[in-house]
Structure formats: structure tokens, C-alpha cells
């Protein structure tokens, strides 16, 4: 049993008032209370960016790594102790700029991780530069004439790269986000949630109002097991046409399920012992 | 110099099996009671090019290659052309007389032992792949080796490929052996005949540094390794990958070195004995993770196998140009333990030690090796490590009341725990307080920086070892060196009087007092290194008052030969 008060740390979030990070923080804690996540069964990994501060505000074991490297750290944790619910908090800059290579390979391998992408389409901790998800033409401090680059689509990238649970949420709908986080964690394999959130300080276009007006949920009878359909729907984006929900789900076994060494129990539950390598030595005689 | 070593160099194109032939000849020697040192040299490609392997065989310990060969086995013309100046007195050339190999430039003192290798190979099994087996049979005959031992080696080597393959290879070896016995009776030697003391004899291993590192890691209870392939360390991951299910650890090939070190850190944070390995170029990428392990106080073993740089450099050759990088890489200061092995056996032992040090000091430990150590096989008795004890340091998996991961301790070492047992902590790349919460507070910063750096002081007091001294305590000339130069220096010392050798294994913390004390009696100090700027000399100057009188520096990627050490010493003597 996890109570909301168990998750409280001595530090209150220092994000800007109105920041989407606050909603993601709240939704995650709601999910943790619902599911009983705590330091006995869960580990959190964060990258660098505004999102990364979350480790200070949730009292569950965590690792705040380097910029872009949250996924490999989480992968190592999961392989060493596959009993841990392992969450990765990352941002669109962290995950797709510095960490882009890790993202596609983590998807490809389908590690049993839940990845929450704080997607504000900007680098905000460095005071507002363009990110790989910033729209073409968008003016930022690093692109005052308008962003010359095209953004890519994190959902189709995840699906094509091999992730087996791909969803998009809006930070402001906390009940629905909570639900998706719980679902994603239950999924065996790599779960990616692209969470649209405003940057209230540096992004005056993609505001809470913008997302509230332009997003909608996938239909009740939408079939997330159809990969082609998922790619099609995940490619939709425009005025009043930003779909939210679970786009894709596949039951392809997770990476961890393929490793015989951890079939019985996690790697770290076998105590470290001196091994006898004499038989191996003999191969060299 | 008069030599008690027989040196046989086999040369061919890449893909013609030089390495496996050399290894088989080495095993034939060790099973006959001899010591060996195998030196392999090859370019960075898979087919074609010029590959050579020198097998050095002796009744005494042999620790280095030689500049000359007693026998050259040429499977192609290139081998003849490229090694014309390396014939020892009374040397022989075994070459394929059925191929159009021109021997007109070979010095007249060299005994020409033409053997129709390709013809015999064709008769035995109609395969080019058999040529090196025929040559093995031929050289075994010339050296007076035992054909039965060779045949059993062939059966072991090819057994997994089926009886037919074994049969044709045995026939190829026997026919090569027979041809030489019948045609060159007057040239047969007695250099490889089994020694009489072979009853109750456990043969030595012919093992290289990569294999030794992998076996050391396994022996030390490795649980997790993430290693991206790179010359010259790739064979570490091959051995680890092959044995993972048997020993229960996980080897993972990541997408790059950034991922390798971060995965290894993640696994270690979760409680696994964890390692990674790379060469200099990969280490450049790992630099950020190196400091991350230092900052989050996560144990990590890194094996760095050096090759010449900068950039891609000389991928398949050897160098010692990464020392200062490993000692200084990453922004700001953190405690790093850096060890350097001098041969395969030291690589085994230091790898095992590194795991204990990493766990005890909760910080990265680098073991430096170089291409010569990685890939040159040497004979050693089966490694003995019954006195090795696993030390996981201050690690608890029990629930602790009021737990503080980074609590201050006089030793700098706090109690460590793992996620999943209910002890809350944050491993934070930001500066952090005792629980791991981000903190930019001045007092906290000072306390944490000092706590981390104190670990190095504790290590210096409790674990650091002094350099090893070889040769007389009192000497006219003292050589100081490290890494694979050890073998060539020791080989040279056998032919030098009044010279001793100080071999340095600990680079950080550095044994300044010990080295100063050891070299206090030295009259003239020669520092030997394979890099341009004398990186060890810099380290010595930074830490001691020792005056290095002369540097012998080499940076062409080639191994230092014992002959070069002897020349360097003689030159000093002639100046004095």
C-alpha cells in the first residue's frame, strides 16, 4: 500500500506555475498510489531537463543520469533486477536530441520499461531553444528567424522502431494520463507515452488552451493491434486533429523474457560468489 | 644475442589461418613442456593484407617477441619479401615450393626448406584451408616435435566440425611432416621434442590478456557486462558472451559506448557486479559516464585496451597513449582508481581486484591493458586464486532505519544499498545531499566533494600497492616502465648486468613515496614508454621529485623488443 503522503519529499516542485510537469508529477503519484509503487518495488530514472527535477519530488528510489542517457541506465537496471517497475522520465530534447540513438535501440529491443516523455517541443531548462520536436517555422531563441528543421513524429518513430505500447496523452487530463501510465506499466515490453505539455514560459503557442481545443481521444472501438492503422492515426496532426490515447499495442515478448539467466529470478538475487574457471582455463592448455 | 629461444614466424594473407596455426604450434610446445610467447601482427581488414604470427618457444620462461626468426614459414610471396632482414644465424625458410614463390633475394646463409604445401594440401583434401596444417606438420618435423601431440591438437581443434575435417587435417599434417622428414633429414633439429619430465605434467595455458580479463571477471563473480566491440578488446566480449548462461551473468552488446557505460552503471546501481570495456576511442565516448559513476558513487569496472591514436589511429597495433586521458578525462575531480597490467596474468589478477576495489570504494576502477597484452598469448600455469575473497564493501540489502545513502564517514565511504529493498535514495548526477536530493548549498557541496575525494586517500592507505622491482636492488641503471613493455624489459634483463626494473601497476592513487624510496638508490633512470610525450614520466614528475635521466619513447604502434632495450642501455653506457 502506498499512501500519497509516502511519496512526499521535503522538496516542493520548482517548476513554473502552470507547467505541464506538475500534472505529470501528479498523475504519476496518483498511479503510484493506485498500484502500490514504492521504493521496495520501483525505480525511476530521469534524464536532464526541467523534467529531470522530478526525482526530487517523488519519494521512490531514483537515478538522475546524464543528458540523453536515461534509457541505457534504465535498461541496465531492468536487466539486473527485472522485478522492479522501471520508469523513465525524459524530455523531448533529452530523448530525441542527445538520446535519439538510445531511443530507437531501446524500442527495437523492447525492454520492459515505461517511458514518459515530457513533450513541450522545446529546450526549456536552457531557456527556450528548438528541440527535435519543435514545429517547422517556430521561432525560438536559437531559431529567431523560424525553425528551419522539420520535427519528427515520436509516435511513428516508436512504432516503427519496435516499441510494443505507444500512446499519447495530454498532461492537463490527469485522470486519463494516470490511467495510461497504469496501463503502460502493466504492459510487458517497451511502453512509450508521449505526453503533450505546455511550456508556460517559453512556448506561447502550444498552451493548455491550445491542447484543450485541438486534441481528441481515439474512438472507443479503435483497434490498437493494427500496426498500419496505428501509423496512420499517429500521423494525424493539425487543427482540432491531434489524437490522444493508446495507438499501438503488441504482445511481442519483452527483451527480458528472452534471457534464460533471469527466467527463475532476477540477476541480483543470486549472491556474488567466486566462480571456478578451471574448466575454462583447460581450454587454453 | 645468443638465444635459448626458438622463434618461428608464420606469414600469410588474412583469412589463411595464421592465428589458429600459431596457437596450435604454441599448444604443441606447451604440451611438450616448453614456454611460449606468441606475437600477432595484422592490419585492420578481414581478407588479404599481411598477417604474421611469431611463436617463441623456450625451455625457460619467455615473455617477449624477438626481432629475428629461426624459421620463417611463408605461405605467400609477401611473407618472404617482408622479412628478408629478420633471419637469425642459421635460420631456415619453409615455403610453398608448389606455388611460384621467388626466394632469390633470401640471404644465402638461410637454409631453404621448400615444401610443396599447396600440392600436399590439395592431395589431402583439395582445400586451400589445409595449407597451414601442412605447414604445421612440416615445422613440427623440422623442430623435432611430436606428431601424435599435433594430431591430438588437430582433433580437438576441428572435432566440432566433424570427423571428415579432422581426417583430412590429420592427413595434411602427417604428409607435411613426412615430406620434411624424408627430404631434409640433415636439417632436422631437436628443439621441440617432448621434455623428459613430462610424467604427471599439467601443461601451461597459452592465454592472452583478453581471455584473461574475461576469465578474471567471471572468476570474480561478474553479473553484468555491456561492451561495444572495438579492437583490440573484442575478444573479451566474445569469451563473456559464450559463457554467460553457464555462469549466470548477462553480457549485452549495446548500440554504442555511451550506452555501454550507462547500462553498466544502471546494472551496478541495481546491485549487479558490473563492467564495461573499450579502447581509447570508445573511452572518449565513455568519458561522461566515467564521471557519472564517480558522482553517483556507483561501482564500475572499466577495462581499457589501448591502441595508437588519435582518432581511429592504428586500429590493430599497440600503444600507451591513453594514460593521461584516463587519469584526467571528465570535467572536475572525482575519485578514480586506475591500475595498469603488464601481462595477461596481471590482467587476470587486476581485473579480479578491480571488482573488489570498485565495490569497496563505490567508484569507477579502470584497468589499463594494451593491444600486445590483449592479443599476444603467453604461457602461464593455470591461474590460482583460491585466496581471493569477494568484497562487496559496505553494501546492505536489508531495510535500514533513517537511511542516508551519502552519509559522511571519515573514510569517505558511505553505506550503499540497492533499489527494491525499501531504503530511499537518489543516485543523482546533480550535486546532492546525504539522501541524494539535488543541492546547490555551499556547505553541502564542500562536504560532498571532500567526502568523495577522501575515498582516494583511504584507498592509498588501505589498498594501494607499491611498484614491483625486478633484478638487483642496487643497479647502475634503473628502468621504469609499465604495461606490456614489462615482458620485453624482463627478457632484456636476462642479458644485462647491473640493470634493474621498476614496474608500475598503480596509476591512481599513485605510489609516490614507494616509488621515490625504490628509486632512491638508482644512479641513472631510463623511462620506457610507447607514447610521444612520456605520459608516465609526467605522472612521476607530478607526484615525486624523481629525476628521469632519459626517456626511451616509441609510438609507431609496434611492440618494444628486448633488443631495443639492450641497445638503449648500451647507448647510455657508451655515453657515460
UniProtKB/TrEMBL annotation, chain A:
The keyword Iron-sulfur applies. GO terms for molecular function: iron-sulfur cluster binding; metal ion binding; oxidoreductase activity, acting on the aldehyde or oxo group of donors, iron-sulfur protein as acceptor; thiamine pyrophosphate binding. One of its GO terms (biological process) is cellular respiration. Keywords: Iron, Iron-sulfur, Magnesium, Metal-binding, Oxidoreductase, Thiamine pyrophosphate. Its cofactor is thiamine diphosphate; Mg(2+); [4Fe-4S] cluster. Residues 48-195 form the Thiamine pyrophosphate enzyme TPP-binding domain. InterPro entries: 2-oxoacid:Fd_oxidoreductase, OFOB, PFO_beta_C, THDP-binding, TPP_enzyme_TPP-bd. It comes from the Bacteria. Pfam families: PFO_beta_C, TPP_enzyme_C. Residues 199-264 form the Pyruvate ferredoxin oxidoreductase beta subunit C-terminal domain. NCBIfam families: PorB_KorB. This is 2-oxoacid:ferredoxin oxidoreductase subunit beta. It comes from candidate division WWE3 bacterium GW2011_GWF1_42_14.
Automatic annotation (TrEMBL), chain B:
Residues 216-449 form the Pyruvate flavodoxin/ferredoxin oxidoreductase pyrimidine binding domain. The keyword Oxidoreductase applies. Residues 14-177 form the Pyruvate/ketoisovalerate oxidoreductase catalytic domain. Keywords: Oxidoreductase, Pyruvate. GO terms for biological process: response to oxidative stress. GO terms for molecular function: oxidoreductase activity, acting on the aldehyde or oxo group of donors. Pfam families: POR, POR_N. The keyword Oxidoreductase applies. NCBIfam families: OAFO_sf (TIGR03710). This is Pyruvate flavodoxin/ferredoxin oxidoreductase-like protein. It comes from candidate division WWE3 bacterium GW2011_GWF1_42_14.
Amino acid at each position: 500500500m502506498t499512501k500519497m503522503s509516502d511519496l512526499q519529499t521535503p522538496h516542493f516542485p520548482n517548476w513554473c506555475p502552470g507547467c505541464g510537469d506538475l500534472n505529470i508529477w501528479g498523475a504519476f503519484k496518483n498511479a503510484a498510489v493506485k498500484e502500490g509503487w514504492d521504493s521496495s518495488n520501483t525505480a525511476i530514472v530521469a534524464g536532464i531537463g526541467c523534467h529531470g527535477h522530478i526525482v526530487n519530488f517523488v519519494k521512490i528510489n531514483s537515478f538522475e543520469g546524464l543528458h540523453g542517457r536515461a534509457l541505457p541506465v534504465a535498461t541496465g537496471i531492468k536487466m539486473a533486477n527485472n522485478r522492479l517497475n522501471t520508469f523513465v522520465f525524459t524530455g523531448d530534447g533529452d530523448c530525441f536530441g542527445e538520446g535519439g540513438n538510445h531511443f530507437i535501440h531501446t524500442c527495437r529491443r523492447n525492454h520492459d520499461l515505461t517511458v514518459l516523455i515530457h513533450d513541450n517541443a522545446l529546450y526549456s531548462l536552457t531557456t527556450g531553444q528548438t528541440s527535435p520536436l519543435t514545429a517547422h517555422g517556430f521561432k525560438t531563441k536559437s531559431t529567431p528567424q523560424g525553425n528551419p528543421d522539420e520535427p519528427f513524429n515520436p509516435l511513428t518513430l516508436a512504432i516503427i522502431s519496435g516499441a510494443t505500447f505507444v500512446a499519447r496523452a495530454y498532461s492537463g487530463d490527469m485522470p486519463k494520463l494516470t490511467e495510461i501510465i497504469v496501463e503502460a506499466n502493466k504492459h510487458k515490453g517497451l511502453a512509450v507515452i508521449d505526453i503533450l505539455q505546455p511550456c508556460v514560459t517559453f512556448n506561447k503557442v502550444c498552451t493548455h488552451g491550445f491542447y484543450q481545443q485541438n486534441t481528441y481521444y481515439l474512438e472507443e472501438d479503435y483497434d490498437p493491434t493494427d500496426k498500419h492503422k496505428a501509423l496512420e492515426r499517429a500521423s494525424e496532426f493539425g487543427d482540432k486533429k491531434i489524437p490522444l490515447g493508446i495507438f499501438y499495442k503488441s504482445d511481442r515478448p519483452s527483451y527480458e523474457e528472452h534471457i534464460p539467466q533471469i527466467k527463475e529470478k532476477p540477476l541480483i538475487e543470486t549472491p556474488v560468489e567466486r566462480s571456478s574457471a578451471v574448466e575454462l582455463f583447460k581450454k587454453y592448455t | 644475442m645468443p638465444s635459448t629461444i626458438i622463434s618461428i614466424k608464420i606469414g600469410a594473407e588474412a583469412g589463411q589461418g595464421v592465428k589458429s596455426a600459431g596457437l596450435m604450434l604454441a599448444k604443441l610446445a606447451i604440451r611438450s613442456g616448453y614456454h611460449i610467447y606468441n606475437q600477432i601482427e595484422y592490419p585492420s581488414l578481414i581478407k588479404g593484407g599481411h598477417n604474421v604470427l611469431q611463436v617463441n618457444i623456450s625451455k625457460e620462461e619467455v615473455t617477449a617477441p624477438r626481432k629475428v626468426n629461426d624459421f620463417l614459414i611463408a605461405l605467400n610471396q609477401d611473407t618472404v619479401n617482408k622479412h628478408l632482414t629478420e633471419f637469425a644465424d642459421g635460420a631456415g625458410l619453409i615455403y610453398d615450393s608448389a606455388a611460384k614463390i621467388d626466394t632469390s633475394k633470401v640471404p644465402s646463409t638461410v637454409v631453404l626448406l621448400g615444401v610443396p604445401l599447396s600440392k600436399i594440401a590439395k592431395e589431402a583434401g583439395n582445400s586451400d584451408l589445409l595449407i597451414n596444417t601442412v605447414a604445421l606438420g612440416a615445422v613440427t618435423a623440422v623442430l623435432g616435435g611430436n606428431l601424435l601431440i599435433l594430431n591430438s591438437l588437430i582433433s580437438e581443434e576441428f572435432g566440432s566440425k566433424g570427423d571428415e575435417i579432422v581426417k583430412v587435417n590429420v592427413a595434411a599434417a602427417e604428409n607435411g611432416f613426412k615430406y620434411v622428414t624424408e627430404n631434409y633429414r640433415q636439417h632436422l633439429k631437436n628443439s621441440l621434442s617432448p621434455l623428459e619430465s613430462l610424467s604427471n605434467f599439467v601443461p601451461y595455458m597459452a592465454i592472452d590478456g583478453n581471455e584473461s580479463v574475461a576469465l578474471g571477471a567471471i572468476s570474480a563473480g561478474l553479473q553484468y557486462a555491456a561492451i561495444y566491440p572495438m579492437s583490440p578488446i573484442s575478444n573479451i566480449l566474445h569469451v563473456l558472451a559464450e559463457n554467460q548462461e553457464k555462469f549466470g551473468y548477462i553480457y549485452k552488446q549495446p548500440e554504442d559506448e555511451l550506452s555501454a557505460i550507462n547500462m553498466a552503471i544502471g546494472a551496478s546501481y541495481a546491485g549487479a557486479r558490473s563492467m564495461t570495456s573499450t579502447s581509447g576511442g570508445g573511452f572518449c565516448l565513455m568519458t561522461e559516464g566515467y564521471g557519472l559513476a564517480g558522482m553517483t558513487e556507483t561501482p564500475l569496472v572499466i577495462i581499457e585496451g589501448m591502441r595508437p591514436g588519435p582518432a581511429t589511429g592504428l586500429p590493430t597495433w599497440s600503444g600507451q597513449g591513453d594514460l593521461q586521458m584516463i587519469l584526467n578525462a571528465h570535467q572536475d575531480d572525482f575519485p578514480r582508481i586506475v591500475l595498469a597490467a603488464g601481462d595477461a596474468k596481471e590482467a587476470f589478477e587486476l581485473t579480479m581486484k578491480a571488482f573488489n576495489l570498485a565495490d569497496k570504494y563505490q567508484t569507477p576502477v579502470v584497468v589499463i591493458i594494451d593491444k600486445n597484452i590483449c592479443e599476444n598469448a603467453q604461457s602461464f600455469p593455470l591461474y590460482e586464486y583460491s585466496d581471493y575473497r569477494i568484497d562487496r564493501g559496505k553494501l546492505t540489502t536489508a531495510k535500514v532505519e533513517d537511511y542516508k545513502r551519502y552519509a559522511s564517514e571519515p573514510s569517505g565511504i558511505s553505506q550503499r544499498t540497492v533499489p527494491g529493498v525499501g531504503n530511499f535514495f537518489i543516485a543523482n548526477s546533480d550535486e546532492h545531499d546525504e539522501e541524494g536530493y539535488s543541492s546547490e548549498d555551499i556547505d553541502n557541496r564542500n562536504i560532498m566533494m571532500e567526502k568523495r575525494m577522501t575515498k582516494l586517500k583511504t584507498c592509498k592507505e588501505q589498498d594501494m600497492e607499491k611498484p614491483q622491482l625486478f633484478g638487483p636492488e642496487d643497479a647502475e641503471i634503473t628502468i621504469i616502465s609499465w604495461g606490456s613493455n614489462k615482458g620485453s624489459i624482463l627478457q632484456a634483463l636476462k642479458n644485462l648486468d647491473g640493470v634493474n626494473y621498476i614496474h608500475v601497476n598503480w596509476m591512481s592513487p599513485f605510489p609516490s613515496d614507494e616509488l621515490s624510496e625504490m628509486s632512491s638508490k638508482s644512479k641513472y633512470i631510463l623511462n620506457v614508454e610507447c607514447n610521444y610525450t612520456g605520459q608516465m614520466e609526467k605522472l612521476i614528475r607530478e607526484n615525486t621529485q624523481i629525476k628521469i635521466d632519459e626517456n626511451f619513447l616509441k609510438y609507431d604502434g609496434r611492440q618494444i623488443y628486448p633488443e631495443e632495450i639492450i641497445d638503449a642501455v648500451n647507448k647510455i653506457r657508451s655515453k657515460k
